[in-house]
TrEMBL record:
Coiled coil region boundaries: none
Domain Glycosyl transferase family: 201-354
InterPro entries the record matches: Glyco_trans_1 (IPR001296), Glyco_trans_4-like_N (IPR028098)
Keywords: Transferase
Protein name (database record): Glycosyl transferase family 1
Glycosyltransferase subfamily 4-like N-terminal domain mapped to chain residues: 14-180
Length: 384
């Protein structure tokens, strides 16, 4: 089967890494994969290493920070015009199906309809829990188009499925948890830093209020007040204004020697391995790749009981959970793991075993591959 993948970027963030792992798995199953991206990026070198054909076509997104109406209209027109060209590419490539890897772009669905090919949408995002991101055509219009221009819609978690249920029929929604694979050179190495001098907590993710870095700092302040020599490493970039707010918060609580900013890390697993505990303080996650990476390294994990994080952590077995917004409870959980290294090791070991058996590339590719065969078979029957 020949599959045309539509990516919203050629970077190496969560959705793109999931796409890359999927393509690797599908190739092993005999699929022929082609990829369209809107501009250059590090993902292209990865595709080259897999001998995957790709092409750059500058199609626009239709979901971003709110824009003026004329700008949104212009982007929508460009999406429709670009879809005509992409439909020709799909035909020339001889693709059997079109797979849009995110709801951030809509051009693939229109191109698939023009090329008379079935279309699958993979939503790594929520249509509801995206406070800074708005659809050019509005939420209801886009979900209507998703319903009528797709044969199946894959979602990354049951939490995302719940969000879409209010707009889409359940018969088109399919929950498929993505795979997460650590880089081989990291998967078999030990900690890079001696963390015996203090208790090291780590958070990984873009700097944004929804990620909860401020909540972790509040919890750290509580721990230091209790006499716990805890430190926090914040890994991630973006959010310049929020970073200024976090820096002021650190100064206000006298935590300058306890909090460090690392910036973006392409392979954060080595940093996770050097920590004692991983914190996922997000208000809501569509999947939670960081949580799974923490599990795969065998590290104890504390997460907020919201969104997909609550699906990944079995409280007391593969990690600990706390009520989002309650930084005192978060501090209690961190102190519990600080005071009980044996329990910390048990949780990390349980999490590693569970994640290694659940988030495999083979399982991910097989589930998606079966869905693609199902969609194409139904599309072929409808032509008869």
């Amino acid at each position: 089967m020949r599959v045309c993948f539509i990516s919203h970027s050629a970077e190496r963030y969560g959705a793109e890494l999931a796409l890359l792992e999927l393509i690797k798995g599908l190739i092993k199953l005999g699929f022929i994969c082609m990829v369209l991206v809107p501009k250059k990026g590090p993902l292209l070198a990865e595709l080259d290493s897999l001998n995957v054909e790709w092409r750059i076509i500058p199609y626009p997104v239709w979901m971003s920070r709110p824009k003026w109406l004329p700008y949104r209209i212009g982007r929508t027109l460009k999406t429709l015009l670009t879809a005509i060209y992409i439909a020709g590419v799909i035909k020339r490539w001889g693709c059997d199906i079109v797979y849009t890897n995110t709801v951030v772009v809509g051009v693939g669905a229109f191109a698939a309809r023009l090329a008379r090919r079935p279309h699958v949408w993979h939503s790594h995002e929520s249509a509801y829990h995206n406070p800074d991101q708005k659809f050019d055509l509005g939420k209801r219009c886009v979900t209507y188009l998703m319903d009528h221009f797709s044969q199946m819609i894959i979602v990354t978690s049951k939490s995302v499925e719940e969000d879409y249920k209010r707009y889409l029929g359940m018969e088109k929604l399919r929950v498929i948890y993505q795979s997460v694979t650590l880089p081989e050179e990291i998967a078999h190495t030990s900690s890079l830093v001696d963390a015996t001098l203090f208790f090291q907590c780590i958070m990984i993710g873009s700097l944004h209020p929804w990620k909860g870095q401020d909540e972790a700092i509040f919890a750290l302040a509580e721990l230091v007040h209790r006499g716990v020599n805890a430190h926090l490493l914040i890994v991630g970039d973006g959010g310049k204004r929020f970073r200024v707010k976090l820096l002021q918060q650190i100064v206000d609580h006298g935590l300058q020697q306890h909090v460090k900013f690392h910036g973006y890390a392409e392979n954060p697993a080595s940093l996770i391995r050097a920590a004692d505990v991983v914190l996922v303080c997000s208000r809501w996650e569509a999947f939670g790749r960081v949580a799974v990476e923490a599990m795969l390294t065998g590290k104890a994990l504390i997460g907020s009981a919201r969104g997909a994080t609550s699906e990944l952590i079995q409280d007391g077995e593969t990690g600990l959970m706390y009520e989002w917004g309650n930084h005192t409870k978060l501090a209690d959980k961190i102190q519990y793991l600080h005071d009980n290294p044996g329990e910390r090791a048990r949780l990390g070991n349980n999490a590693r075993k569970w994640a290694e058996s659940r988030f495999t590339q083979e399982r991910y590719a097989e589930e998606v591959g079966n869905l693609l065969f199902e969609v194409v078979a139904k599309a072929n029957l409808s032509k008869v």
